[in-house]
UniProtKB/TrEMBL annotation:
InterPro entries: RNase_III_dom (IPR000999), RNase_III_sf (IPR036389). PROSITE patterns: RNASE_3_2 (PS50142). Residues 19-156 form the RNase III domain. This is DsRNA-specific ribonuclease. One of its GO terms (biological process) is RNA processing. GO terms for molecular function: ribonuclease III activity. It comes from the Archaea. The lineage of its organism: Archaea, Methanobacteriati, Methanobacteriota, Stenosarchaea group, Methanomicrobia.
Amino acid sequence: MTISRMDDMSDWICYRDRICYPAETFLLRFPVENKERLISAIISNAFLNEKIPFEQLKTIHEEHSLATLGDFVLDYAIIANFPVNETVTPQKINDFREQYGNNTTLHRYARDCLHLQEYILWGSDQRMKKIWNQESTDMLADRFEMLIGALYLEKGLNGVLEFLQTHQFFKKIDAL
């Protein structure tokens, strides 16, 4: 590897770390091992369509399978929080899951409680229009699920449960 190539790689690593720093420090509250996975959870395709400073970013796309994984993990975490007693029915459990796990609720929680929009790498037009505030959108719900998926792969189920507890997921949704 030539010196300039090494400098490029070093610059990329510094840039990558700078992208991840706010989410790691203020949202997750720990440094992640797989920074590219975290970026895939917080990067917007609109951001990638703009002039970007490093070609390495073009290899990191929105990872929608993280949202699928995060959705399943979040459903489990919600169900695990349901108080079980002799009057519990499958319908009550499902209603509880839908109360906390529907996209509208997750979007509002992500926007109003976590301020997730501040950690997303938006395209300039998206940021200017503040698309996360549009009535018809629940895009932060998907981002939240992607973040949960990335967190699960990084720290496992206990890491997700700790994150939800730290950010008072149930209490804050109840207050929305």
